[in-house]
């Protein structure tokens, strides 16, 4: 199977759950990469999405007896947990009526939150980072699959593990389905990196307003979602 045909299958497969469609996933993953780039470059070197990094940095501050410094990492961690709680609550309340509508609500709420973040001054970075973490965790909780494969749109480590696992299986078994799965994960990682690169490119120009680009990506996802309902 040619590379072009594989990419075509990646992009053109339609799923019952429209949030699993590749084109939808591309735009929310671009947003995921940009969010991390934004919070780190523009908002004081805090990771909005990679909470493992925040735990490491918070622990470092605590060991250094810099308890006030640890707060800037603790609050985004708590916000991440709250975001999962909010998204799952929406899921439990709405999914019984329509399994897609709850994801639509999460997406709309995420756009609103990130738009607000774009107008928060630098002196309130801790609030901005907390809201970005909240948005990130809602996105992770709502959107978990691409063409039937579990993935993460806001971080790479799980995608890297799954991609290498699938590639290894393909090398040893020549199973075309494993190759197909590996391509999915590596393309998602590439899109995430592109989102981070867009953030790094425009951060010096847009500063706090950089996050509005995320709102644009998510709005495109929202339109794609609504069109397929």
Automatic annotation (TrEMBL):
It comes from the Bacteria. The keyword Transmembrane applies. Keywords: Membrane, Transmembrane, Transmembrane helix. Pfam families: DUF1275. InterPro entries: DUF1275 (IPR010699). The chain crosses the membrane at residues 21-41, 71-90, 102-120, 182-203, 209-226. PANTHER family: SLR0142 PROTEIN (PTHR37314), UPF0700 TRANSMEMBRANE PROTEIN YOAK (PTHR37314:SF4). This is DUF1275 domain-containing protein. It comes from Criibacterium bergeronii.
